Amino acid sequence: MSFSSSDGDYSGVDGGLHVPRRSVTRAVGHDLARETHRRIPPHNVPADDRYAAVLDCATYALANTDIRYDRIMAHGLGRLRQDVLATFGPDAEWDETPALGVFEFLSRFVKAGDDSDVSEGRALYLLPEFTKGDLKRELYTIMPSLHGGRCGEVSSFLELINWLIRKYADEQSLSDQDALFHGATQGADETENDYYVRLRGLRHLCGYIHTEGQMKRRYMQGLGWEIRADVREHNTLNMPMDLLVQYADRKRDVCSRRLQEQKDEEDRRAEARRVRRAARPAPRKYVTAAVTAPPQVGEVPPGSFRWSAPKVGEADPSRRDPPKVGEAGPSRWGPPKVKEVPHSQTQ
Fold first, then answer.
1. Which of 108, 161, 275, 347 is the most buried (most CB within 10 A)?
2. What is the C-alpha separation between 63 and 119, in angstroms, rounded?
């Protein structure tokens, strides 16, 4: 039994001519009438060479560069999605926030796709399955239709990657995020592990442009001064980042206990001083008397003065009445004494 194809060739169990695959797919309507060769779309070249690779869509190309995809391949897309999901993570769907999270999203998808040997032709329709929200609806509007009714804004996996990078990332936003990474320090209420998690998140938003060595140096420079020198001395070239973070965490616990012991000792000494002051006898109370300061040179002392003019109604102290009979005149050495008269003269 045999059947004829649309181009005049036939194929059947009894032999005959072999019909090429593209003829079969075109006959049953599976071919999407797209280019069969892989094309890398152009991209913007940043001024800073550090961002050139992360902003290039070719960086996120899959190992399997086959761009073919038809309705026959679409039947196994659900099973392929489950395989990729095992590596990608069930809760790793991206909803376009934060914007620079596009780098981490693409890196995880490429790794999961290579682990499952996903071709770029299948990845074009598989990538939207790992998004959600408005982004997922927008991606389906720009992609070509399997039935050929809609060409779409993008026609290949690399064009889709380039569209995502152009929309959610640029050189200025990368530069600002890079400045945040190099200026990150440990907070006052932040543990060493929390600081590492925050620094790792900044590295992801920078598109992994920082190496593991740069990550370790930035981590050690941002630690608190109490443990920074010890962590640097303990670090080696081949030490994994996780072990360095564990050592810093243990060193912080030691420093915290030491500081707490010092604080307790200071509180104990302060309490002992308070008890000693309370046990001391009460201080004596001294009576204070007002002391008149002596007059200065050229200053007239208060009160009446010997040579001052008498007030109205007062007698002049310098003019004294003449002494009476039998009395002695005024003396500068004391009051005058009464003159004694012999008894015989009084008679």
1. 161
2. 8
175 pairs with which residues across the strands? none
Q: Which amino acid is at 92?
A: A
Give me the half-sphere count of Cα atoms (radius 13 Å) on the Cβ side of residue 343: 0
Give dist(CA 263, CA 210) in Å, integer: 41
Name the helix (H) or strand (E) containing 266.
Answer: helix 241-279
Distance CA 112, CA 127 (A): 11
Q: What is the pLDDT of residues 118-167, one digit of tens each?
A: 999 899 989 999 999 999 999 988 888 766 556 678 888 999 999 999 99
Sign of the C-alpha dihedral computed for residues 142, 144, 145 and 150 taken in this order: positive
Backbone angles phi, psi at 174, to 5 degrees: -65, -40
Residues of the chain falling short of pLDDT 70: 1-37, 71, 146-151, 287, 299-347
Query: How far is residue 119's CA from residue 157's CA, in Å, rounded to a whole number?
Result: 9
* Largest Cα–Cα separation, the chain: 198
**Is residue 317 within 8 Å of 310, Cβ to Cβ?**
yes
Residue 128 DSSP class: G
| 100 touches 208 (CB < 8 A) | no
Query: How many CA atoms are closer than 13 Å to the CA of 249, on its beta-carbon side?
Result: 13
Distance between CA atoms of 184 and 222, rounded to whole angstroms?
6
pLDDT tens sequence across 238-248: 899 999 999 99
Taken in order 260, 265, 266, 272, is the CA torsion positive or negative?
positive
Q: Look at residue 92 in the predicted model and tell me its pLDDT.
A: 79
Q: What angle do CA 238, 244, 250 make, to 5 degrees?
A: 150
How is residue 217 written in tokens?
């140096």
133 and 96 in contact (C-beta within 8 Å)? Answer: yes
3-state secondary structure of 94: strand
Structure tokens that stand for 241 in this block: 């980042």
